[in-house]
């Protein structure tokens, strides 16, 4: 387990296993790396990895696939469990983190849930001026470090 305090002052526990869960994940986050770049969304909070809430009756995996498409117009495949984290806020919550590969890229149109998508190299991601708060915290740095260490074959 890796523990840190986020920018909102919340204690966060980051785990690189698949449970058991103190708090079952009801949110997902997905790392998609394609042709040397990370898939990110652009929204009011800033630039961040795609993700969101699990809808009633939906599995974590189904939510991950749906959220990536709704936010970026990207179809993903080869979804793999990567980590989960628990945020000890007033109402504690947990997020499941997955990695995935690009299956198909559709044209991004205004009906998607974000302002757009952006592909960033590792260097561009680390130095981007408009990252959302959670993209700057110690947990994100640790997850990106672990992704690199445990990198699987991302591209076909």
Describe this structure in words.
- By secondary structure, this protein is an alpha+beta fold.
- It has a single domain, classed as Nucleoside Triphosphate Pyrophosphohydrolase (Alpha-Beta Complex).
- 20% of the residues lie in helices and 40% in strands.
- The protein has helices at 60-72, 122-127, 138-149; strands at 2-5, 11-15, 27-34, 37-43, 46-48, 51-53, 74-88, 93-105, 116-120.
- Strands 1, 2, 3, 4, 5, 6, 7, 8 and 9 form a nine-stranded mixed beta sheet that branches.
- Keywords: Hydrolase.
- Pfam families: NUDIX.
- GO terms for molecular function: hydrolase activity.
- Belongs to the Nudix hydrolase family.
Structural class: alpha+beta
Q: Can you count the helices?
A: 3
Strand content: 35-45%
Give the biggest beta sheet.
9 strands, mixed
- Reported by name, the CATH topology is Nucleoside Triphosphate Pyrophosphohydrolase
CATH homologous superfamily annotation: Nucleoside Triphosphate Pyrophosphohydrolase
Our Rg estimate from Cα atoms comes to 15 Å
Helical content class = 10-25%
